[in-house]
From TrEMBL:
A GO cellular-component term linked to this record: membrane
InterPro entries the record matches: AA-Vitamin_Transporters, EamA_dom, EmrE-like
Keywords: Membrane, Transmembrane, Transmembrane helix
Organism: Idiomarina loihiensis (strain ATCC BAA-735 / DSM 15497 / L2-TR)
Protein name: Predicted permease
Transmembrane segments: 6-31, 43-63, 69-91, 98-119, 125-146, 153-176, 188-209, 221-240, 246-263
Membrane topology of this protein: Multi-pass membrane protein
PANTHER family (UniProt xref): EAMA DOMAIN-CONTAINING PROTEIN, INNER MEMBRANE TRANSPORTER
Coiled coil: none
Subcellular location: Membrane
The keyword Nucleotide-binding belongs to this UniProt entry's keyword annotation: no
Location (main, coarse): membrane
Domain EamA: start-end pairs: 2-115, 128-264
Length: 277
């Protein structure tokens, strides 16, 4: 919803850049004294977390939101646990159970329905839905990187430094590569500005600190299941904001949620990891 409001005055590239810029800069004062804990082996991994966990998805979601309803975007985001599971099994030697494979298949069926649903509910290939799907793959990779590669760092260190590294190119692009300065002076732009700032500061920086802490306390699939709540909130806000709701979208959304639930219904039993200081 905040992305949608941001797009009223700004283009999708500006929304994505402003979101990451504000998220990285707001945490900068809190990580200065933590830099001495970063070794040479951490820098590339933190840069990768900032890239695939924040920078790329921010632009993908902003672009997709120009052609997708908030509810559809929210439900597609619920594929993050499935992406986390698949990437963990393929690249991080995590075992997959039969229930998880079935859940993935059901979720992919629901995704196919949403990808072939146009903005007006007709059957048509919607390329913008693939952007959200790609963003969930980025989130899945990011979760596995944090859990398996940099679990020795604190959540605030991981979030703050990775976001700051992503914020540098985002800020340069925002002010040097877009018409942000001109557009922010237009009538009505303040609503969009504060919406994106709220998204960056609270919905990205603040939420990621908490989220990355939960990653270290539990396992990646269980942690990513927080996305169960996103479709519910997104659908309610979308309908309240006057968005249409089509049968094909409803079937696709239901299939995704069933698939994600099926793949994760025994996820708690596999909790691993201990809190890091």
């Amino acid at each position: 919803m905040l992305i949608k409001k941001g797009l009223l005055a700004f283009g999708p590239m500006e929304v994505g850049a402003l979101r990451i810029s504000s998220a990285g800069l707001v945490l900068a004062p809190f990580i200065a004294r933590r830099l001495n804990k970063i070794t040479r082996k951490h820098w590339l991994k933190l840069a990768s977390v900032g890239l695939v966990g924040s920078l790329i998805p921010a632009f993908m979601f902003a672009i997709a939101q120009t052609q997708l309803a908030s509810g559809v975007t929210g439900v597609l985001n619920a594929l993050t646990p499935i992406a986390t599971l698949v990437i963990g099994a393929l690249f991080f030697h995590q075992k997959a159970r039969l229930a998880q494979v079935i859940g993935v298949a059901i979720g992919l069926f629901g995704t196919l329905l949403l990808v072939t649903a146009s903005a007006n509910g007709s059957w048509d290939f919607n390329l913008y839905a693939l952007l959200v799907l790609a963003a969930t793959v980025c989130y899945g990779l990011n979760l596995n990187l944090i859990k398996h590669k940099i679990s020795d760092l604190s959540p605030l260190t991981i979030t703050g430094i990775s976001l700051l590294m992503a914020a540098v190119p985002a800020t340069i692009y925002l002010f040097a590569g877009t018409e942000f300065i001109t557009q922010v002076q237009q009538p009505g732009a303040m609503l969009s500005l504060f919406s994106v700032l709220a998204l960056g500061i609270a919905g990205t920086a603040g939420a990621l600190v908490i989220f990355n802490h939960v990653v270290q306390l539990t396992n990646t699939v269980f942690t990513s299941s927080v996305t169960y709540l996103i479709p519910i909130v997104a659908l309610i806000l979308g309908i309240l904001d006057g968005e249409d709701f089509w049968l094909q979208q409803g079937v696709g959304m239901l299939a995704i949620l069933v698939g994600v639930w099926f793949a994760n219904r025994r996820g708690r039993s596999g909790m691993a990891g201990i809190p890091q200081k």
